[in-house]
Amino acid sequence: MIDARELRKEYGNFVAVEGSTFSVDRGEVFGVIGPNGAGKTTTLKMLAGLLEPTDGEATVAGFDASDPEMRKQLGFLPEESPLYEEMTPISYLQFFADLYEVPGDVAEERMLDTLEKLDLEHHDRKLGDMSKGMKRKVAIARSLINDPDVLIYDEPASGLDPLTTNYVIEFTEQLAEEGKTIVFSAHNLFHVESICDRVAIMNDGQIVARGDLEELQDQYGERRYRVYTT
Ligand code: ATP
């Protein structure tokens, strides 16, 4: 469902990502973990077609990542979602439903269903008056408005309290059970171990290990593995 081949991104003379190659099967949850500056966001944005690779290529759902058609199959959750403070969750989601040309009755049912699943009762509250956790849930609802097959979530749990973090992780787990293909980045192993089928560990712009968690522990040993993930 996702295929990244030798992705490379340079910012001037600085190489942010180099030789990033991995694939994600339909219905799989793939974790990209690593410390600050490892190149996770850059990699995810290249997959989502938001950054043009300097070299290499990515396909998502059979489309080149730069193909606008690909966007219709994709729900991207950026690390920091720009939310319009004066909007309510419904007006915000309606705005994106219109952008994706989701028919009115389908959009309404999808919005209400997703907001209910996310436990967001305050439909009439302005986004600017919401907590960080509530805003993150609205951003997650936005990523689902076009009912995409593929979700790319950049550190969806970062900066949230433990309860909301668990909530976001469990919700992502449900989406995986519904058959979505998910790429999920995190600093912390704790955020990915319960839901990821496989992970890639990034450091200094490169994938330094990949596989399922047990394989990585065998391959790299518990100590080194933890260095990258805590
Ligand atoms: P974090 O966990 O802090 O979000 P990350 O793993 O997502 O980190 P990236 O945001 O992909 O890392 O950044 C990788 C490297 O590229 C960092 O050193 C960052 O400073 C650099 N970088 C990212 N965007 C730019 C840019 N627009 N111009 C120059 N350098 C950039």
Automatic annotation (TrEMBL):
Listed A to Z, the keywords are: ATP-binding, Nucleotide-binding, Transport
Start and end residues of each ABC transporter domain:
2-229
Single GO molecular function: ATP binding
Describe the family membership recorded for this protein in Swiss-Prot or TrEMBL.
Belongs to the ABC transporter superfamily.
Spell out the protein name for this chain: ABC-2 type transport system ATP-binding protein
Which organism is this protein's natural source? Halomicrobium zhouii
Taxonomy of origin reads: Archaea, Methanobacteriati, Methanobacteriota, Stenosarchaea group, Halobacteria
